């Protein structure tokens, strides 16, 4: 059995799920974790962040429900309103990083989200992935090169095949069977109960 974590790097609820994911992984070091990027902000949804006025309230709700924090640099980026979230670029970045450390894909996904939600860094900028790569001891030049050529549609199609339409979604896969452990917010205890029920 393995876990598949389907998230979007620009999704606040995915950011809030990071701590839960870290704890689940720590409790099950024997379970491989695959990370798949979703396409939340693509096509016509690639517009200045000011167009998503509801996100300010949503982020406050996320903090209230989960305790997840948003950094001052992110708050400043949000207040400016001109930043454009591009999930295709974010997916290319994660693909590039995990290519060089597939067994640390979940850690890398969390680091990418921190770069945005804490440090206010653009996930369309190759420098962001250079910074993450350096922090993980990866070949940053190779990561940047892979970022420029990665194909995000493969991840988006994988998410669709898994039937995922909201982020984050954590799935346990055994053979040809897939079991949803979490969709949106879930506690570690809830996930543990669902994992236990799978035997």
Could you characterize the architecture of this molecule?
With 199 residues, the protein is an alpha+beta fold. It has one domain (2-197): Glutaredoxin (3-Layer(aba) Sandwich). 52% of the residues lie in helices and 12% in strands. The protein contains 9 helices and 4 strands, in the order βαβαααααααββα. It has helices at residues 12-27, 54-66, 72-80, 87-100, 105-117, 126-135, 140-149, 153-161, 188-197; strands spanning 2-7, 33-37, 169-174, 177-183. The chain has a 4-stranded mixed β-sheet with strand order 2-1-3-4. α4 packs parallel to α6. It is globular, with a radius of gyration of 16 Å. The termini are close together.
Map the helices and strands.
Blueprint: E1 2-7, H1 12-27, E2 33-37, H2 54-66, H3 72-80, H4 87-100, H5 105-117, H6 126-135, H7 140-149, H8 153-161, E3 169-174, E4 177-183, H9 188-197
Parallel strand pairs: 1-2
Antiparallel strand pairs: 1-3, 3-4
Radius of gyration from the alpha-carbon trace, in angstroms: 16 Å
CATH architecture: 3-Layer(aba) Sandwich
**Count of individual beta strands:** 4
Q: Indicate the structural class.
A: alpha+beta
CATH class: Alpha Beta
Count helical runs.
9
* Percentage of residues in DSSP E strands: 5-15%
User: What is the residue-mean pLDDT, rounded to a whole number?
Assistant: 96
Q: Helicity range of the residues?
A: 40-55%
Distance between the termini: 10 Å
The name of the CATH topology is Glutaredoxin
Q: Runs with pLDDT <50, length 5+? A: none
Please, how many domains?
A: 1
CATH superfamily name?
A: Glutaredoxin
Order of helices and strands: EHEHHHHHHHEEH
What is the approximate shape? globular
For the sheet with most strands, the description reads:
4 strands, mixed
């Amino acid at each position: 059995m393995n876990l598949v974590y389907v998230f979007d790097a620009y999704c606040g609820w995915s950011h809030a799920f990071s701590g839960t994911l870290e704890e689940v992984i720590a409790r099950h070091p024997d379970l491989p974790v695959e990370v798949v990027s979703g396409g939340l902000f693509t096509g016509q949804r690639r517009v200045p962040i000011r167009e998503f006025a509801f996100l300010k309230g949503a982020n406050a709700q996320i903090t209230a429900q989960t305790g997840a924090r948003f950094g001052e640099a992110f708050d400043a980026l949000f207040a400016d309103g001109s930043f454009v979230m591009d999930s295709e670029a974010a997916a290319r970045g994660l693909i590039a990083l995990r290519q060089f450390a597939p067994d640390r894909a979940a850690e890398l996904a969390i680091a990418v989200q921190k770069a945005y939600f804490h440090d206010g860094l653009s996930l369309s900028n190759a420098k962001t992935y250079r910074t993450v790569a350096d922090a993980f001891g990866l070949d940053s030049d190779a990561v940047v090169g892979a970022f420029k050529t990665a194909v995000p549609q493969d991840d988006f199609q994988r998410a669709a095949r898994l039937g995922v339409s909201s982020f984050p979604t954590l799935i346990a896969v055994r053979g040809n069977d897939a079991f949803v452990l979490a969709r949106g917010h879930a506690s570690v205890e809830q996930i543990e109960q669902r994992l236990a029920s799978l035997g």
